[in-house]
Amino acid sequence: SYSTHGEHMIPIYIFYSMFGFQRTGDAFWAAMDQMTRGFVIGATAGRTTLNGEGLQHEDGHSHLLAATNPAVVAYDPAFGYEVGHIVKDGLRRMYGEDPENVYYYLTMYNEPYPQPMQPEGVDVDGILRGMHLVSAAADGGSADGPRAQILASGVAVNWALKAQELLRDDWGVQADVWSVTSWNELRRDGLAVDRHNLLHPESERTAYVTQRLEGRPGPVVAVSDYMRAVQDQIREWVPGDFVSLGTDGWGMSDTRGALRRHFLVDAESIAVQTLARLAKSGQFDAGRLREAIDRYRLEDPSAADAGNTEGSG
User: Fold this and answer.
1) Residue 242: Cβ within 10 Å count
2) Would you say residue 7 has pLDDT above 60?
3) Bigger pLDDT: 71 or 21?
4) How far apart are CA 119 and CA 179, in angstroms?
5) What is the DSSP string of 88-135?
6) Residues near 29 by Cβ (< 8 Å), separated by ≥ 6?
């Protein structure tokens, strides 16, 4: 497609890539060398949305591979309104007044799910920089008691929102839920800040992740439909306790719900992991962890809600 810019027609390249970076990595490096600009849509993203296809089609690592390419601006959005802002800013960066030789990689999932309207006062800067608050704790942070921060990306934001309800209703824990649109961009920001602080100790800066989470109580639980190493990219700049949940290891052919229970990334697993971190700091009775595990039957993938099975492989 083309975009009119003054009197010139500017090509906007949009490529669709299935199965992530593992089959297209050399081509993406060549694109960097050729200073390509445009959008790559990483289709069938994640390790649990194209269930039944085997690990070669279940992408748990593309964002790690994307992180190795300095020309790639990678996002893992959850909602359509996030995509809209990311694409708009991408057009500005690649084709605006001061164009950059970068291209965008946006992961899209094989699973249909309802798309919310853009909230009033949406944090556009947060969407573009890598994370924004999508659901604050029900008490608005005013009540006493155990608290937590849940960071999730892509399809995992839905699991995090359900975990927020389970924690509140079943265990009296208040959690904030953040949509991490880009673990990679958050890491790049952290690395840039570290470089600046090393060279300019007289004018130190603070990483964006640190800015957003500093002063917010409770452990940080980070989850995605990717390997834990994707979320672990930001560990260094997270203030306080941090733990990640991811889809490491072999999968299996089953429902999306069973796969997520197998990998321990579903809503119930997020809730129990949050309770476990709170127990380590003495904010939750460690003796009740077994109660939570048994209540949600975490050790039994067949006990999980099958979830959305439309569009399954």
Assistant:
1) 20
2) no
3) 71
4) 13
5) HHHHHHHHSSS--S-EEEEEEES-----PPPPTT--HHHHHHTEEEEE
6) 69
Instruction: Give the number of C-alpha atoms closer than 13 A to the C-alpha of residue 73, restricted to the C-beta side.
Output: 20
CA distance 256 to 252: 10
- pLDDT at position 5: 47
Cα 223 from Cα 237, distance rounded (Å): 16
Six token digits for residue 20: 């992530």
Distance CA 88, CA 71 (A): 18
Check if the beta carbon of residue 72 is closer than 8 Å to that of residue 105. yes
- By the 8 A CB rule, do 222 and 244 touch? yes
Count of C-beta atoms within a 10 Å radius of residue 225: 30
Distance CA 30, CA 27 (A): 5
CA atoms of 97 and 158, how far apart (whole Å): 37
When the pLDDT of each residue in the chain is averaged and rounded to a whole number, the result is 89
Distance CA 42, CA 200 (A): 38
What local confidence, expressed as pLDDT, does residue 312 receive?
Answer: 56
Name the residue with higher pLDDT: 146 or 307. 146
Q: Residue 160, class by beta-carbon neighbours within 10 Å (0-12 exposed, 13-18 middle, 19+ buried)?
A: buried
pTM: 0.92
Cβ-based neighbour number of residue 14 at 10 Å: 12
